[in-house]
Automatic annotation (TrEMBL), chain A:
It comes from the Bacteria. It comes from Marinobacter santoriniensis NKSG1. Signal peptide: none annotated. The chain crosses the membrane at residues 103-125, 132-149, 155-178, 190-211, 217-234, 280-303, 309-328. GO terms for cellular component: ATP-binding cassette (ABC) transporter complex. Residues 152-332 form the ABC transmembrane type-1 domain. GO terms for molecular function: amine transmembrane transporter activity; carnitine transmembrane transporter activity. It is a multi-pass membrane protein. This is Binding-protein-dependent transport system inner membrane protein. One of its GO terms (biological process) is glycine betaine transport. Keywords: Cell membrane, Membrane, Transmembrane, Transmembrane helix, Transport. It is found in: Cell membrane. Belongs to the binding-protein-dependent transport system permease family.
Automatic annotation (TrEMBL), chain B:
The lineage of its organism: Bacteria, Pseudomonadati, Pseudomonadota, Gammaproteobacteria, Pseudomonadales. It comes from Marinobacter santoriniensis NKSG1. Its EC number is 7.6.2.9. It catalyses: a quaternary ammonium(out) + ATP + H2O = a quaternary ammonium(in) + ADP + phosphate + H(+). This is Quaternary amine transport ATP-binding protein. The keyword Hydrolase does not apply. Residues 22-267 form the ABC transporter domain. GO terms for molecular function: ABC-type quaternary ammonium compound transporting activity; ATP binding; ATP hydrolysis activity. Keywords: ATP-binding, Cell inner membrane, Cell membrane, Membrane, Nucleotide-binding, Transport. The keyword Cell membrane applies. Belongs to the ABC transporter superfamily. One of its GO terms (cellular component) is plasma membrane. It is found in: Cell inner membrane. Pfam families: ABC_tran. It is a peripheral membrane protein.
Length: 345, 352
């Protein structure tokens, strides 16, 4: 009847096959072929030989699982562990919600004539460059003047919180990786996966786990996406510290902790800061996508532009994101350059 | 010179590879470096090293690259673990030390100077110099006085607040030496400390080291691949080749009686007149009164005696130490000592 009947008959599995009656509803393809009449599975030429896939084998043996059984199984499995998982994850991630809500509240409820000077002071403190301060001042004033101030500040505060948490979690992971090759071998595949998974894919299981109204949902998505560079570059930076200097530290009797915070971290700092720069840029990219799951900020406007085909809104908010990106990049790069200048070998 | 043995190395072996213990057995049965590498894929680092380093002396370990000298010096403070053997510092077995004892040893007893300086680029010269103190938990304010003193002693007064990258190579190595001195440890390990410097600065640094040693009498272990440097600094010279000690002893002795063709090759290029000293070629005083052409010190090198004689080979000089006559030196004997060794052995064979 079907192409691969002979496999099952050769193995003597016909009984087992006929036991399993397909309980799942008919697929669209089956419906169509039924409507056409005739089973249409007869192979007439070797050119039409189907790959022995789940579905092709299912045609010969109804007890054989179909490919949608696989995806359905995954989904069922996830739903089964979901309650237990969120029981554990909910309390752990609750502080993330608090800090995101807190940052958003603080940023939006502090008057603009306090927030803007404070931001500029921070910029000056990390870069010591008046040129950059005036550029940032001009950009923020421009955004505020066209009434995008609130959105920009929402985006900015989400990035601050997420990037800060990325550094807080990522740097220790990077240090652990640099100290143990086993840890490095175990972590790198995970990092590779986080970096290559399409960003939208993070959102699906997260929606199942947390409620869309909670801010930790987008917080986790952003952190997972943006944490990778800071981990990688911390690991790399510490591994690249001059062997001679490490040897000197050993020869003068430093303990492992002294070596870490007196030699390795300070010397790896340029690399770690490069990682922080990348992390901030990636959180900015993700905060736009995360507006799909209720992250506030400029991303919402972009989404509105797409949904309602409001070209102007989309363009202006896109431009706002570009301005924020340029500000964040220039400021972190300038502080990185200052660190580099201080430790030129 | 008789003084206490400060560091004693006995039957030290080091083999690099996945199963050094197995390879060690082959080496003990006499397998050579090349064969071990080819058949068992292990690298013989050091073979049966026995060296006594005396208190207050400069022991120079010399060898070409790959001879195992840097490996050897790293065994003394256990930056590298030996495969077999014994290392004693002040009579204590370093290999039995646990981590804390080892750290104490590195902090209090041994300091190290590195070929590539290995200063901390993010710390000032002053903080670098005080690294050993800082490691033991002394605050910058407390070690500042000590660090400034030694920095001034090595000629870096006024550079305290600069960063290493602002200094030249020679000055960076001065910081390296100051760092070792500030730790106040009796033993200094110097791993090709002057090899990265250009010749003039290197000579300056050697003089500085000798001058400091005159005053401080530390036990210094100095690694070099440069024979001139070795002869200038050494009280005790150890020559390594392929991980084995070829000859060790008083450098003057080695120069006059090389025990191995390898060493003859090595020393054939050097200026013997500048390296040999009066004490190693002088004769016992003959007793009967001679007319001496002048007094020389036993520490003078032959070059200075040559220039004193003005080229006259009939003169005889009196050798004095602290005003006492300890021997005499005729220009004929001096000339004989200057004959290159390869030529000397040839003529001896002809005479037979």
């Amino acid at each position: 009847m079907a192409t691969y009947d002979f496999v099952f008959s050769a193995l003597g599995l016909e009984d087992w096959c006929s036991q399993g009656q397909s309980s799942s509803p008919m697929s669209m393809a089956q419906l169509l072929s039924k409507a056409k009449g005739g089973d249409g599975t007869e192979v007439t030429s070797i050119w039409d030989l189907p790959f022995p896939s789940l579905d092709a084998l299912h045609k010969s043996c109804s007890a054989w699982p179909q490919s949608r059984d696989l995806t359905k199984g995954l989904e069922d499995g996830f739903l089964q562990i979901k309650d237990n998982l969120s029981l554990v994850l909910d309390p752990i991630t609750q502080p993330l919600s608090w800090s995101l809500d807190g940052a958003l509240y603080t940023m939006l409820h502090t008057p603009w004539w306090i927030v803007i000077p404070v931001l500029l002071a921070v910029v000056f403190f990390v870069t010591k460059s008046w040129k950059l301060v005036s550029f940032v001042a001009g950009s923020i004033v421009l955004l505020a003047f066209i009434d995008y101030y609130d959105y920009a500040m929402q985006t900015l505060s989400i990035i601050f919180v997420c990037a800060f948490l990325c550094v807080l979690v990522g740097v220790p992971i990077g240090i652990a990786m640099s100290r143990s090759d086993v840890m490095q071998r175990m972590t790198i595949p995970i990092l590779d996966m986080l970096q290559t998974l399409p960003p939208f894919v993070y959102l699906i299981p997260l929606i199942f786990l947390f409620s869309v109204t909670e801010s930790k949902l987008y917080g986790i998505a952003i952190i997972l996406y943006a944490i990778v560079p800071v981990i990688r570059l911390t690991n790399l930076g510490i591994r690249l510290v001059d062997k001679e200097v490490i040897e000197a530290a050993d020869a003068f009797g430093m303990t492992p902790w002294q070596k870490l915070y007196k030699v390795q971290i300070p010397l790896a700092l340029p690399n770690i800061m490069a990682g922080v720069n990348q992390t901030i840029m990636m959180s900015l990219a993700m905060v736009v996508i995360a507006s799909l799951v209720s992250a506030p900020g400029l991303g919402v406007l972009v989404l509105k532009g797409i949904r309602n085909l409001e070209l102007g809104v989309g363009l202006v908010s896109g431009l706002g994101i570009v301005i924020l990106a340029v500000i964040l990049d220039r400021v972190t790069k300038a502080s990185l350059a200052r660190i580099n200048a201080a430790q030129k070998q | 010179m008789t003084s206490d043995v400060k560091i004693s190395i006995k039957n030290l072996y080091k083999i690099f590879g996945p199963t050094p213990d197995v390879a060690l057995e082959y080496v003990r049965r006499g397998m050579g470096k090349a064969e071990l590498l080819e058949k068992h894929n292990h690298v013989l680092g050091l073979r049966d090293i026995n060296v006594d380093m005396h208190d207050g002396e400069i022991t120079v370990i010399m060898g070409l690259s790959g001879s195992g000298k840097s490996t050897l010096i790293r065994h003394l403070n256990r930056l590298i673990e030996p495969t077999a053997g014994e290392i004693r510092v002040d009579g204590e077995d370093v290999l039995s030390f646990n981590e804390n004892q080892l750290r104490e040893l590195r902090r209090k007893k041994m300091s190290m100077v590195f070929q590539k300086f290995a200063l901390l680029p993010h710390r000032t010269v002053l903080e670098n110099a005080g690294m050993a103190m800082d490691v033991s938990g002394v605050s910058t304010a407390d070690f500042e006085h000590e660090a400034r003193k030694w920095l001034a002693r090595v000629g870096l007064e006024g550079n305290e607040h600069q960063y290493p990258h602002q200094l030249s190579g020679g000055m960076q190595q001065r910081v390296g030496i100051a760092r070792a001195l500030v730790s106040n440890s009796p033993i200094m390990l110097m791993d090709e400390a002057f090899s990265a410097l250009d010749p003039l600065i290197r000579s300056d640094m050697q003089d500085l080291l000798l001058e400091l040693q005159e005053e401080l009498k530390k036990t210094i272990v100095f690694i070099t691949h440069d024979l001139d440097e070795a002869l200038k600094l050494a009280d005790h010279l150890v020559i390594l080749k392929d991980g084995e000690v070829v000859q060790q002893g008083d450098p003057q002795d080695i120069l006059l009686n090389p025990g191995d063709p390898y060493i003859v090759d090595f020393i054939s290029d050097i200026n013997r007149a500048r390296v040999l000293r009066v004490r190693s070629v002088m004769k016992e005083p003959s007793g009967d009164a001679q007319d001496y052409a002048g007094d020389i010190s036993e520490k003078d090198n032959l070059e200075s005696v040559l220039s004193l004689s003005g080229g006259d080979t009939n003169l005889t000089f009196r050798v004095v130490r602290d005003g006492e006559t300890v021997g005499d030196l005729s220009m004929k004997e001096l000339t004989r000592a200057l004959v290159p060794l390869a030529a000397a052995s040839e003529s001896r064979q002809k005479g037979r």
